[in-house]
Amino acid sequence: MNPGNATDIKAVVDRLPHIISTFPISEVFHKIAEELQAVFRFDRLGLTLISEDKNSAIIEFLYSTHSDSPLPAGSVLSLNNSDLGEVLKAANPVFVHDTSKGQCDTDALLLKDGIRSRVSLPLFYGGEVIGACCMGSRQAAHFSESQICLWKEIAPFVSMVSENARLTRKLKESADILATEIAERKRIEESLCKLSLTVEQSPSAIIITDTKGAIEYVNPKFTRLTGYIAAEVAGKNPRILKLGEKSSEEYKRLWETLTAGKEWRGEFHNRKKDGNLYWASASISPVKNAKGVTTHFIGIQEDITVRKQMEEELKNLNDLLRQQASDRAVQLMESEEKFRKISASANDAIIMLDNEERVSYWNEAAEKIFRYSKEEAVGKHLHTLIIPKGFRKRHLDGFKEFQTTGQGPLIGKTVELTALRRNSEEFPIELSLSGVQIKGKWNAIGIIRDITERKILNARLLAEIEGRKKVQERLKQMVKELERSNSELQQFAYVASHDLQEPLRMVSSYTQLLGRRYKGKLDADADEFITYAIDGAARMQMLINDLLEYSRVGTRSKPFEMVNCLEVFDHAVSNLKMALEESGAVITHDELPTVMADTLQLTQLFQNLLGNAIKFRGKEPPRIHVSAIQKDGEWVFSIRDNGIGIDPQYTNRIFVIFQRLHSKEEYPGSGIGLAICKKIVERHGGQIGVESEPGKGATFYFTVPVVN
C-alpha cells in the first residue's frame, strides 16, 4: 500500500480547520486519524504526549484499522533507552523499517500484533516538543524520508489538537481535585454546623476566651444566666462576674493548671448584671491547635444555685433538729455529707441523630454516661443502644412522625425518662429534645442528664422536709400552749390586782385616819410607825395599779385606728402638767406622723417615757426633744433628754418588770413603767431600746410600722 501524494495532503490540510472547529476533542482525534490514514495508508496510529516531569510519555489516542493495540490509551511509556525518547529529545523522526529485528521492547509487542514497520514523528507547540505521532504498517519498509515533507503540512494541526487534549486532561485533573476539596469543605461545614447548633442549644453556659482571658464568644445560655449579652462582655475578662471571694492563691493554681494544658474544675460565686448572686459549677479547658499550642480556653458553667440553696436549707434544718435532740445531730451530719456527695453534678450528654435515627454525634459525656465509645455509637440506631425494650416501639413511632414533620410528643420539651447503659442497667434521665434541618432532612439533638443522683437526693430531701414539718408542728403546739399560759397568767394578774384593791383601800383609809386623829397624842415611835404604814399602803396601791395596768396591755386593749401622734403627744404632756411645772422641764418636738395604733396605749407610752425623762433629771432643768423619722418601712420615734443617763450594761435590764437601778428613796416608782412601754410597743409590732451613757442623758427610741 503506497502513501498518498501532495494533492491528497492539500485536501487533508484544507479539511482539518473545519474538523478542529466543529467536533469535540474526543472526536477530533478520530477524524484526524481517518484523514491521515487516507494519505499515509497506515494500519495503526498513536498520539503520545510527554509527561510533566519529562521522564515518561502517556498514550493520548490510539487508532487501528484491524484490532486493538496491546498498549491501550492511557499507558505510560518510559523515555529511557527508546526511540520515542530519541524523537522527543532530538526532535527528529525515527524510522523502523522492520520490527522483526527487535530494536526495542515496543517492536516485539508490535510484531506480535502484525506491525512490520513504523515511524515516530515529533509534535511541536510553542517551539517545544510536546509529544510524538507514531504510525505502524503491516508492510515492512512502508514509511520513508520523503513522507516528512507531507507530515510537516499536517503536523501543526495535530500538535494543536494534542496540546488541547493535554490541557483538557490537566483541567479535568484540576476539576477532580477541586471537586474533592469542595466535598471535603462541605463535610467540614456540616460538622461545624452540628457543633455550632450543639453549643448554641446547650443547657450550660459556655465562654470562649483567648489565652489572655479576653472573652471572644458566649452562648445564649450565658446571656440567660448572667443577663449580659455577647456585645457587653466581648473583649472583657470573666472576672466581671466574680465577687472576689476566691483568694489570689486559688486563681494562681487555676492558671497553673490551664497553662499546663490540663482541665480545671471548681465552683464560683458570681454576680449577675442585675446584681443578683448565683453559684456556678465550672470546668475550664485549654483548646490546642494541630501543633499542640494552646490558642483558646473554653469554660462551661452550670447554675447550681438551687443546689446550694438546698444545701443551706438542709444545714438550717440540721441546726433546728440539733436543738431538739443531741443524738440526732450526728445522724444529720452524716446525712449532709452523703447529700453533698450524691449532689455532685456531671456533664450532660449531647447526642445527634440523622433522619434515619442513626447516631451522628456522640460527645465524651455520652461515653461516660452510657459507656459506649464514640466509635461504637456513631452510625448505630439509637434504640439499639440506650432505649429499654419496653419503650422502643413508642420511641420508633414518635421518630417516624419526626422524620417528616420535625414534630413529636417530646420535641421542645424537657422530660424525665428511663435509659439503658451498656451493661443493660436502666437508670433515670432528663431529656431536652429539639430538631434541626440539615440538607432538607430533620435531624434530632438530645441533651441528656443522668438524674440518678438527683432522684436519690430528692427522696432524702423529702424525708428531711417531712421531719422538719413534724418539728414545726410540735413548735406550733408549744406556741399555742405558751399563749394559753400567758393568757391565764395575765387574767390571774388582773384578778389578783383587782381583788387586792378593796382591802388595801380599807387599810390605807384607816391608817390615814389614825394618823390624823392620834398625831401628837401618842409617843414619837407610834407617829413614826403610822407614817410607815401610810407610806407602805400608798406604795402598795401604786404597785397594784401599775401591775393592773401591765396586765391590761394585753387583755383590755382596743382595736387599732389611725392616730395623729401630735394629738397623742399633747395629751400626754397635759397629763404631766404638774411634773413639768415642778421640774421646770422644757419639751420640744419635730413634725410627728399619723400611725395605726391604740390611742390610749400610745398616749400611755409617750406619758411613761416623758415622765421618766422628767423624773431621772440631773442638776439642770430637763430638756426633752421628741422626733420621728421614716426608715425601712417603719417610723422610728426618739425621746432625747439631758438627765442622769444609764450605764450601757443595764440597757436591757431596765425593760424587765420590777427591775430598778435606784432606791425608792432616790427615785420613787414601782419598776413596771418601762416594762409596760415594752409590752405596748411589741403589741404594735415594733421594738424599743435606749442609747445612753452615765451623766450624758439618754435617748429612748421605739418603732411603729408605716401604714401603706
Structure notes:
The protein has 708 residues and is of the alpha+beta class. The protein folds into 5 domains: 6-173, Beta-Lactamase (2-Layer Sandwich), CATH 3.30.450.40; 201-303, PAS domain (Beta-Lactamase, 2-Layer Sandwich), CATH 3.30.450; 349-450, Beta-Lactamase; 465-547, Helix Hairpins; 557-705, Histidine kinase-like ATPase, C-terminal domain (Heat Shock Protein 90, 2-Layer Sandwich), CATH 3.30.565.10. 47% of the residues lie in helices and 23% in strands. It contains 19 helices and 23 strands. The strands form 5 sheets. It has a 6-stranded antiparallel β-sheet. The chain is rod-shaped and about 190 Å long. Mean pLDDT is 77; it is low at 336-346.
Describe how the helices and strands are arranged:
Elements: H1 6-22, H2 25-40, E1 44-50, E2 56-64, E3 76-78, H3 83-90, E4 94-96, H4 105-112, E5 117-125, E6 128-137, H5 147-200, E7 205-210, E8 215-218, H6 220-226, H7 230-233, H8 248-259, E9 264-271, E10 277-288, E11 294-303, H9 305-324, H10 326-342, E12 349-353, E13 359-362, H11 364-370, H12 374-377, H13 389-405, E14 414-420, E15 426-438, E16 441-450, H14 452-518, H15 524-555, E17 561-564, H16 565-575, H17 577-583, E18 586-589, E19 594-597, H18 599-615, E20 623-631, E21 634-640, H19 673-683, E22 688-692, E23 698-705
Parallel strand pairs: 18-20
Antiparallel strand pairs: 1-2, 1-6, 2-3, 4-5, 5-6, 7-8, 7-11, 9-10, 10-11, 12-13, 12-16, 14-15, 15-16, 17-19, 20-21, 21-23, 22-23
Helix pairs in contact: 1-2, 1-5, 2-5, 9-10, 9-14, 14-15, 15-19, 16-18, 18-19
